[in-house]
Amino acid sequence: MLPDPQPLISRLHPLIASDQAGEDLRRYFGIGQPPDAPSFTGARFEHLAGGGDRPATANVVTADDLIAVQTLSVTIPAEAALDLLEGRLGVQLSELLHEIPNLDMAEADAADLASGSPADAAWRLLTGQSGIGWVTAGKLLARKRPRLLPVYDQVVRCVLGRPTSFWLDLHAALRADDHALHHELLALRCSATVPQTVSALRTCDVVLWMRHHAEHRTTNCTGQGHQSVGSD
Fold first, then answer.
1. Residue 125 burial (10 A CB sphere; 0-12, 13-18, 19+)
2. Is 231 part of any domain?
3. Is residue 101 part of a domain?
4. Residue 228 within a domain
5. What are phi and psi of 58, to 5 degrees?
6. Tens of pLDDT, residues 71-117
7. Which one of 19, 75, 143, 199 is at 20 to 30 Å from 151 when CA atoms are compared?
8. Count of domains for the chain
9. Which of 145, 120, 135, 134 is nearest to 61 (CA)?
10. Do the domain assignments include residue 73?
């Protein structure tokens, strides 16, 4: 049974359609901002070294990818990092990345994100490593497949009310009504003059994170605790 897209759409649409969404995107990516404006290291996440999905390295984890996830305030432990770069873990993840399509989530099939899919297996492989939690695993996979797999952390989860299965719920929301929400995100990206190299998923993530991150640090939000982002 496919998820009902309406609960997530009802949370996402007002935030994406607001005037603040464009302003927040421009602030985050430093577009038209004064020199002394606060900077966000995450603005380099998808662009560092040409991006994690560039053809030459789309199916392997590189040192650039490990630095990129640090721009989003997470760090992969040294032992796991070395295993990703030089060991069996890197080989296993590379095998799975070869099977994960590089396309927009709105264009993907639910099977590409469901339990047992290569994407789900990659997420489980990473979260099975010591020191790599669900947030870090998701951010590394989002670096490698930015159009298909979203950045997802406690702040965004809090805004969205803890979806049961974030990937599948978001997939259903983006595909509903002839992909209306997906097109809305693309239009927002364009109006904010954000580069097209920033995916619709990342546009959504930044809007949600910017709206709530300051408040999240000072309140006891529902976003705390363990979460499965995949098909559970």
1. middle
2. no
3. yes
4. no
5. -60, -25
6. 999 999 999 999 999 999 999 999 999 999 999 999 999 999 999 99
7. 19
8. 1
9. 145
10. yes
